[in-house]
Amino acid sequence: MISHAHSESTSHDCKAFREAIEIQHDGEDSPIQVEQLDRHVLDCPRCADFRDELDSLRNLFQNLPEAPFPVEALDEVLADSVERIQPITPLVMIRKMGISLAAAAMLTFAVVGAWFAAQPTSLEEQYTEAELVRLEQDLYAIMYRLGDTVQLSEKIAVHDVLIKETSPIIRVVPLTAPRLNNDTETKSQAQNP
Amino acid sequence: MSPQEYRQAVHEHSNRVHSYAAWLLRDLEESRDVTQDALMKLWINHEKVVPEAARSWLLKAVYRMCIDRVRRRPPRALGRTIDLAALTPGHSPIPEHRSINEEQSRALSEALGLLPIRERALILLREVQQLSYAELSEVFEMPLGSIKGTLHRARQNLREVLKSDTRLEMYS
Questions:
Q1: Residue A85 domain-assigned?
Q2: Which of A120, B14, B54, B171 has its CA 20 to 30 A from that of A167?
Q3: Among B10, B39, B151, B168, which would you mutate to test the A interface (most chain A Cβ atoms within 10 Å of its Cβ)?
Q4: pTM listed for this prediction
């Protein structure tokens, strides 16, 4: 048990009392009863000084100048959130939905348009019937020369290169198949199937 | 917290939170930025925070941001002082305590600047903002025992600095 008289108090007791004084000073539940603390402080000048110092420190802090938040900064914070704070009326909802729908429509249009643009145009749209007949004849001739061991795509590429010099049709043939690297290679391949 | 409660919390706590940031950072421009950021963060999280916890939440956010800023400062900027003329005088509820003058405030300001930032933050929250131990424990994410110990150490360090200051006769 903690002694009430200072003469009987040890330094250990004073430490416990000061801890309790500090806790009491902070408004928390002290492990030592208030009356017991008061009696000790009356008898112990060092603990009395300790309590006075805590009170003085608190007074200093109570008078520490304040830094009010600037009004314009407060307005900025509230302005940033005021739009979100507004209740969503039907008009606002329709306006927001309208913007969303327009954005979605534009995106869909762009995607579908790009898909159509990427589609290869049919030969019928590009050539006259006579030109197609001529092209088909040329292709048959080339395929006959190359035999079946060569892929059709390569045959078409070879066809383009071989007949470029002589046929005006070939100048407008779109090459959907990969081209061969150079004419020499093409010619040698065509000549040596 | 509803949007209306958020607005109320901003009006209610912004000055105290800004004061706390100003004394922690000792820089009014930085404290303004930090306070604005904290208030915006509260808005972003307003649905998760109850109105009663708004103050603790803000003080915790400010403390974390201040710690980050202080750590990023170059060494020469660590001893910066706050411009007391730009602040408004404190108003103690006890009339006789209002006589504490600017010199004494300056002495306290300088002494606070010598404390490690955690001790400075803790003692400011206890003495100025008057947070309870439980609230401090939440803000600093420390057990109650550690809060008491750190607070005791902070006060001890502060008292030692103030005792050697001739501007404060009460400590001489």
A1: no
A2: A120
A3: B39
A4: 0.62
